[in-house]
Amino acid sequence: MDWQKIVIHHSASPVAVRRGGQVVPVNAAMIREWHLTKGWSDIGYHFVILPDGSCESGRPLYRPGAHCIASNRNFCGIGICLVGNFSETEVPDVQLRGLGAKVQALLAAYHLQVQDVELHREVPGAATECPGRYFPADLLEKELQEMFCVAGSGKSGGSQAARVSDIW
Fold first, then answer.
1. Which of 77, 78, 104, 107 supports an S-S bond with 7, CB 3.0-4.6 Å?
2. Looking at the DSSP assignment, which residues form a beta bridge with residue 57?
3. Helices (H), the chain
4. What domains are defined for the chain?
5. Which residues are within 8 A (CB) of 91 and not within 5 positions of it... i.e. 6 or more apart?
């Protein structure tokens, strides 16, 4: 795949659900089940960030996503989903840090720039609030700036840090 973007989503779900009388956390496996129930071939996202900041793999990166049809993002954008409903609650700091770490790794691995990171709602043609009205774009920007300042006095780190504010 020729990855050109990273698209940030939220699951718009609770962080845990009741199953068989027990409370179980929402994770990549559960989201995969939800998507398979819709008739999809797999989970739509490539990565899922849990409330504790850990990252689980979703759809393999050699396959296009099923997370954002607008502007062809399923074919050119890596989909990352944070578990939670950030139209109702705030993103935990540790989850935001986990997202920042994953984004930084993907930017480096695919030679992308920080301006290639998009919130789902900012994708041209997308009519959504995703990743929620309480998603802290300003804090993610700060997290990425700090990571790139620490990560690099090199060309890509410095140039990416200088452009973070352009995307938010």
1. 77
2. 47
3. 28-37, 73-76, 93-109, 137-151, 155-167
4. 5-167 (3.40.80.10)
5. 82, 84, 134, 135, 136, 139
List of residues 6+ apart from 127 with CB closer than 8 A: none
Q: Which two tokens stand for residue 30?
A: 């559960």
- The single-letter DSSP state of residue 123 is S
CA distance 89 to 71: 28
Question: Radius of gyration (Cα) for the chain, nearest Å?
Answer: 15
CA dihedral 151, 154, 159, 161 (to 10 degrees): 20
Report residue 150 as tokens: 């620490």
Alpha carbons within 13 A on the beta-carbon side of 149: 8
pLDDT in the model for residue 164: 33
Sign of CA dihedral 114, 128, 91, 110: negative
CB 117 within 8 A of CB 47: no
Report the predicted TM-score, pTM, of the whole model to 2 decimal places: 0.87
Q: What is the largest CA-CA distance in the chain?
A: 54
For the chain, 168 residues long, the average pLDDT of each consecutive 10-residue run is: 96 96 97 97 98 98 97 97 98 94 95 91 96 93 72 44 34
